[in-house]
Amino acid sequence: MSKLPNVTTSIFTVMSKMATEYNAINLSQGFPNFPVDERLTDIVARLAKENVHQYTPMAGYPPLMNQISKLIQSSYNRIIHPELELLVTAGATQGIFTTILALVKENDEVIILDPSYDSYESPVLLCKAKPVRVPLNNDYTPNWETIEKSCSDKTRMIIINNPHNPTGKILTETDFLQLNILLEKYPDIIVLSDEVYEYITFEEKHISAHTKSFLIDRCVMVSSFGKSFHITGWKIGYTIAPEYLMKEIKKVHQFLVFSVNSISQFAISEYLDVVDVNLLGKFYQEKRDYFQKLLQNSRFELKPCEGTYFQVASYANISNEDDVTFCKKLITDHGVAAIPISTFYSDHKDQKLIRFCFAKDNFTLESAAKKLCEI
């Protein structure tokens, strides 16, 4: 008997597989196709011949953990104790899974804001807990009145994703004010803040949970080197939590992966001395602006994109088909792969919206845009 009877093949896998089968340009799955920084690959090439291939300590390679603590301090003016509050994870998804498994118990409830990343719900179900899916407003801002009505004495956790995948929305100071009010009413709720796109924001700077004093003692933050440094295949990230929560998270982590692959930890530890994460926003904003310019004469209506490397677009002027059907035809008939937004909702809400990934080289964006403008 399946523990996840309603879980099927991920829409990302489906669309990428179709893109390969039909030789379509893949703007669906969120991975960059441009080269990794040569400074990082040079570090890896050198390290490959050194003695860096055995287990690191369970929580992470100590020099990397010290580098992360410096990064947190320089980015958010927060001082953490790496040996007590930090865990290096095999990607952000493992950090999310491990956190939920460690902190959520049977019959607890977890608030998930839709549209939502598909890795949130399954670990909740595996805990025999209840995912409570609460839709965002149509402009993808949180509806705090609805969120509060969805909370109860059973609510153990609220998951926020900021900047938000798939919509590119970022939370505001008002949102954090409302969150603070909510948490005062429910003092046992823990926040899981998924901030994997934290350095990829544009006109407005990302506001991190790290900067909010009311969250420090009751929030787990999840970050991703894979997203920040265009190395998604490395599957390496980190999780930060107060000591009393981190103790429980580490208990699960040690039996799930024990320790993360060593060479990536050694390499990123060195790389953090030479890379400037503050340049990432400018880099991706240029990508966003170029992609939007390429599509300005298309029939797609582009929605605001405040962060991440995803662009949401409406195809309502093109077709009345549901978004899954439209995306499949976009591949088979026009040679471009995208992701239907309805798959991020528990009720598969269809607003004729799809998601493109613009973390691609200019040739790929130009080739895709040419096809999209012909529709």
From TrEMBL:
Residues 24-372 form the Aminotransferase class I/classII large domain. The keyword Transferase applies. Coiled coil: none annotated. GO terms for molecular function: transaminase activity. Its cofactor is pyridoxal 5'-phosphate. Pfam families: Aminotran_1_2. This is Methionine aminotransferase. It comes from Flavobacterium branchiicola. The lineage of its organism: Bacteria, Pseudomonadati, Bacteroidota, Flavobacteriia, Flavobacteriales.
